[in-house]
């Protein structure tokens, strides 16, 4: 069993998950890369440097299926010290955009299953492995993928924004509930990131603000979060998101609404 610190990543085959997996391998961590896309996982495995391959595991995971979660976590924990997992990065997510009723209700429902149920299940089933790692040098934490869309509800991203508000609430609640267990629960909040998920998307907000972040920017923040021991819960990525989050705290709610209405105007 590896004595290295360990991270389990959902949605690891592409984009932010892929960048995070490679970044943590360079940090010397034991990395479990799990995704529903087995072909993309094979491509990721092919890009892992040979000298890091002994610290890399890949496997299939359907985040909407509880049995799949249990099997994936158990398989990875068999390779870690004492069956503990230092970090669970709930990264898997999907996006649908456009007018709310122009999108099929089944697509909204699928998004919520992946983005909300998937994160909730990841936290729920990972708890025994996090508890096993809580007393280690690195400690134990959950990092949930939230978004700048959880700062104020976004037109044309209605169900996505809804899902990220749910992740934000889950993170805040578990951050308090699991504190006495020695488990820190945090979320990372980027704006638009240059991944396949935003390819072809042209919401008004995206056109006004642009897509300025790369997956590596988020991965770098996740690395800092993995070692963090303080009380900070929400981690915005990039200057735009930091300013938006600050404005939401300091500005009157009417002004925040007006700004978001202008951003979303066609």
From TrEMBL:
UniProt-recorded Gene Ontology molecular function terms: oxidoreductase activity
InterPro entries given in the database record: NAD(P)-bd_dom_sf, SDR_fam
Protein origin, superkingdom: Bacteria
Alphabetical keyword list: Oxidoreductase
NCBIfam families, per database record: PRK08267.1 (NF006123)
Family: Belongs to the short-chain dehydrogenases/reductases (SDR) family.
Protein name per UniProt: Short-chain dehydrogenase
Organism, scientific name: Pseudidiomarina atlantica
Upper lineage: Bacteria, Pseudomonadati, Pseudomonadota, Gammaproteobacteria, Alteromonadales
